[in-house]
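Researcher: Re-running this chain for the archive, since the previous output was lost when a drive failed. Same request as before.
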Amino acid sequence: MDSTRSCVTLFPPMSSNPATTRPLVNGHAERSAATRLKLICATIATLNAVGYPATTTIEVVRRARVSRGAMLHHFGTRAELLLATAEHVLREQEIDRREMLRDVERGEERFYAITDAMWNTMRRPEATALTEIMLGARSDPEIHRPFAALMREFNRKLLDGPNAIAEDHGYADTRLVRAMARLHVAAMRGLVIDKLYWDEDDTSIDDAFELMVWYKGLVMRRLADPDFAKATPPRERPLRRPGLD
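Model: Regenerated structure tokens:
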């Protein structure tokens, strides 16, 4: 999939995407769904352009080119709009990843492919918008609690995927798999933030991702080693620092 897709193509009109939406029963429902989607896309664009604090309902309405009344019909508050945007992005990311993995052979190939699929969705503008919400919600009492609950559920599902693939491949150390998956997700989110302050044509972010894939290969070798499961868990090993041992 093209990682440079616009919001409009990433989130097509709801009537043309039956896999992700309910059937629309009449023209009014279709127009209402299209307006809601337009507001969500405008929110994503605003978050990318000006960041979380400056993403106001007034600015979103201006970018979406809809009336304030139309926005209030769908979202009574800024918090509702931001939560709906986050939920929409998370849902579409999950659908996209499943689509990318649908034809990938089960086992080791899919275990590698899940990292590529995650990175493909994480480097899009929609992921940057989600990162803005993640950072802003921490100190925003109107959205913090419900957004935290949403992310906990999403993160749980995110870690369950690699676990299922690892078990399917015969890897028994699920603790290590979950640790690796969490580290990868955190690293990718960090790269999303970091790329905001690099030149647009800088390719080191791709090199960083390739290093992550290389490291995953090392972890997979350890997972395949029957003696590794008997090793002391990393957190229980004594701390060793260069020059102090």
